[in-house]
Amino acid sequence: MTPNSTYRLQIQPEFPFSAAGEAVPYLASLGVSHLHLSPVLEAVPGSAHGYDVTDHSRVREELGGEDGLRALARTARAHGMGLVVDLVPNHMAAVPRHNRALWEVLREGPQSPYARWFDIDWAAGGGKVLLPVLGGRIGDELGRLRVAGGTLRYYDQEFPLRAGTEGMPLPELLDAQWYRLGWWRLARTELNYRRFFTISDLIGVRVEEPEVFAATHAKIVELVRDGVIEGLRIDHPDGLADPHAYLSELREATGGACWTVVEKILTGEERLPAGWPVAGTTGYDALYRIDGLFVDEAGEEELAGLYRRYAHPAGDRGGDWEATARRAAYKVVTHALASEVAFLTRTAARICAAEPSLRDHAPWALRAAVRELLIRVPVYRPYGTGAEDVLTADAAREAKATFTVPEEAAAVDVVRDLALGRLGDGPDHRAFLVRFAQTSSALRAKSVEDTAFYRYTPLVSANEVGGEPGRPAVSPEAFHAYCARLARDWPATGTALSTHDTKRSADVRARIAVLSQCPQRWEKLLDDVAGRTAAPAPDGQVAWVAWQTAFGLGRAEPERLGQALLKSVREAGLHTSWTESDPAYERAVADFAAAGPAGPPQYLAGELARELEPYVRANVLGAALLHLTMPGVPDVYQGTEREYLALVDPDNRAPFREGPPDEKTALTRAALSLRRRRPDAFGASGTYEPLVAAGPAAGHCVAFCRGGEAVTAVTRLALRLEEAGGWGDTALRLPDGVWYDALDGREFGGGAVPLAELFAARPVALLTRERVSAD
């Protein structure tokens, strides 16, 4: 069953299945058709997110176990709702004492029946798996290792012992194992198992192997076939060896009756592969288009100029998006992903050594070619026959130009041909092809989302997954073209505005986006707060981000703002980082946050926020209504049916709490209830018809009709509209017939309706053919 809408709940020990069951009546009253649950399979004890799966065969006991999940499904069904569950096929927790499959591999080595579960390069590790778990070098940590109860222990961690080694002296015992305990810093260069991005605590799973797929999906498939689960969100499909093959196998296993969307991040105009047997994506592509409508292009360009002068007064290249992203990619591919590049280099070298026509390519040249081509993949991952469109000949020429020895540049052609699958189909060839694609997605995520987004910040609201910080504005024409394509090709795709991974909630972004309409007021605020802060900002970049964040929150509490800023400077990696911290710099950031944006001077930001509140309201309500009524299945993140001002994890992952309703709640309830009553208008058979206003202010209205039954109209760039004199005689032509405002019952006839009249009560309108009581 395809949902009309989903509501994301962060299931965790503090908010288990029973708590979700108590929330069902309220969520049903909103008009939600399906609950969207974060991962429900067994995970590391205490995990607040569940993406660190330890056992695919069991529903997590801390959440209420399988009985609790089935009870929640019954409760939801009694209220006309179903369940959608987040599925994590790519990785498991690399915590041996909780992960039985990994425990057996470490105990029995490559002969273990579970050895095929994981991408382990045994040869690279000298026949051992590197476990980078020690706080220091092994020689300094020996005294903290002990054998007890037939296991090797290091603080609260436990590791299995190879049969017959229990009585050995500790140094010999360590050498006799199928694994090597190592300093955590070795993971960067020595790790010999595939992981999730750069997180060594999450080990990749080889679901491309039939027996692994069967073992890791049996419970989920059972729950789907029993009707407990009606939909699946597939986490990080780019990490899989062959996403298309995996999704095809999943569709067959579930009988093809399960609504399935993938967390696939599309870059720019990139399209989801047409052959994938899914309903669409989880909706970051929609988020970018919606947010972009409320960014003023000219104002954002002016804001970017101010940013360069304020945060980069020396004129360095930090003020340019493309240059920033490229530098971040070089850093990540050289440092954080060094072990992944090493795997690709070793594999390419073996292939070259085995083929006479490819011999004599130096390992350093192959390594350089791998790096240079990886950073030139403009999307997250190349796919099959379309790979040549992203791993282009132009990219190869650029990569060759970086070589100081032209003769060695031929290695680029070898690496490109391997990445495109042109040089053979042996085990090493397939391994290279797959791992290049997997590493590409990791590089894109770590260099763009987790680095460049924190380095280039003219308008921090634009720095979200799937976004384009270098060109954040989206025109109404581009938005309509995108929606028309969804209605035609992916009518049941997911759409989103806030998720558990967004760096700022939709409402925070909507507030910050108003600054693109008034860059001079933003500049004045920065001038006004200069010198009023007891502790100065360590640099202009931090000050810029801090004040925009404080403005987005409305009121910045020191702890929340301090946590977000600390994450920001560590991710940026310019002055401090997660692995090489600078305590003095971090202390300066915290002192500035507490004394400035979260201290007494924040009243100045509060004054500006109050001045801009009407335009913030237009952004918030406009984005929400577009999300709830455009083509696709809207996913409402917990709490976002009302004002929801949250920053990045963990700020946005607190347990769900029902809150007091507000204007946004009424809008959400009206839109979701209408979707449930009129599935034909909003579903796969529903049409999408752009409605274009006529008059001097036409560009400030975005409107469309769904299935001839509902009209959405919103105000964009409301401050610019007011400065230009308002709506004047601008009118929107409605389809023929009688229309009723779903929020207050006002009646409108078909034909031209003055926008000043349509938007008299609020900056958005949701019209329906149904007569609505004005309660």
What fraction, in percent, of the residue positions are helical? Answer: 40-55%
Report the principal-axis shape. globular
- Distance N terminus to C terminus? 32 Å
**Strand proportion:** 15-25%
Instruction: Work out the helix count.
Output: 28
The assigned structural class equals alpha/beta
The largest sheet has its strands arranged as: 16-15-14-5-2-1-18-17
Short description:
By secondary structure, the chain is an alpha/beta fold. β9 and β10 (157-159) form a beta hairpin.
Descriptive account of the structure:
The strands form six sheets. An eight-stranded parallel beta sheet has the order 16-15-14-5-2-1-18-17. 42% of the residues lie in helices and 15% in strands. Strand 8 (145-148) and strand 9 form a beta hairpin. The protein is built from 28 helices and 25 strands. The protein is an alpha/beta fold. Helix 10 (297-311) runs parallel beside helix 19 and helix 20 packs across helix 23. The model has no long low-confidence stretch (mean pLDDT 96).
Secondary structure layout:
Blueprint: E1 6-9, H1 17-30, E2 34-37, E3 41-43, E4 53-59, H2 65-78, E5 82-87, E6 91-93, H3 100-108, E7 129-134, H4 138-141, E8 145-148, E9 151-154, E10 157-159, H5 170-175, E11 179-183, H6 187-190, E12 195-196, E13 199-204, H7 210-225, E14 231-234, H8 243-253, E15 259-262, E16 280-281, H9 284-293, H10 297-311, H11 321-336, H12 338-354, H13 363-374, H14 393-401, H15 410-419, H16 427-455, H17 476-489, E17 494-496, H18 506-513, H19 519-529, H20 540-553, H21 558-572, H22 583-595, H23 602-611, H24 613-629, E18 633-637, H25 663-677, H26 679-682, E19 688-691, E20 693-694, E21 701-706, E22 710-715, H27 718-723, E23 731-741, E24 747-754, H28 755-758, E25 764-768
Parallel strand pairs: 1-2, 1-18, 2-5, 5-14, 7-11, 14-15, 15-16, 17-18
Antiparallel strand pairs: 3-4, 6-13, 8-9, 9-10, 12-13, 19-21, 20-23, 21-22, 22-25, 23-24, 23-25
Helix pairs in contact: 1-2, 10-19, 11-16, 12-13, 12-16, 13-15, 16-21, 18-20, 18-24, 19-23, 20-23, 21-22, 24-25
